[in-house]
Amino acid sequence: MLATSNSRQPFHSQPLRERLVKKIAVFADVQNIYYTCREAYAKQFNYRRLWQQLQEQGSIVAAYAYAIDRGDNQQLKFQDALKHIGFDVKLKPFIQRSDGSAKGDWDVGITIDVLEAAREVDMVVLLSGDGDFAILLDKINQDYDVETLVYGVPSLTAHALINSASLYQAIEQPLLQ
Description:
Elements: E1 2-4, H1 16-20, E2 23-29, H2 30-41, H3 47-55, E3 59-69, H4 73-85, E4 88-93, E5 95-96, E6 102-103, H5 107-118, E7 123-127, H6 134-144, E8 147-152, H7 159-164, E9 167-170
InterPro entries: LabA (IPR047140), NYN (IPR021139)
Protein name: NYN domain-containing protein
Domain NYN: 23-168
């Protein structure tokens, strides 16, 4: 279910003419979406269906999927599928620390790319439930008056992020596979 905040028009109720000219940039926090969909639904997110939904709203002029490179074959197939859909896949190496903890976070990279794209597009679409991005959405809403749409698993998406977005789309069927 799509919800609005900041008293903007619902995503699907805008006139068709207006939606067709909308320039959209998509930023997917792949690790966050993978783990939240797995935890909440024991399913995977359907990036192809997302792409189809967004194409109905305008022109996707940039799309980035941020992932961690563990070098396994299954992951390589998934990354190839994302590329085939239209995503530019950005990879960071998986780092295992000596204390057993792991590092592989794309928050700064996503933030930089969103800030650069926000001045060129009409809508920024963020796939993540990470509340750290709330400040980013507040900033681009204020500085660029860009529409922001967050896709996240309802029970695992930070309320601050939902409140900072112009629009929120719960990840549920038919976006699961």
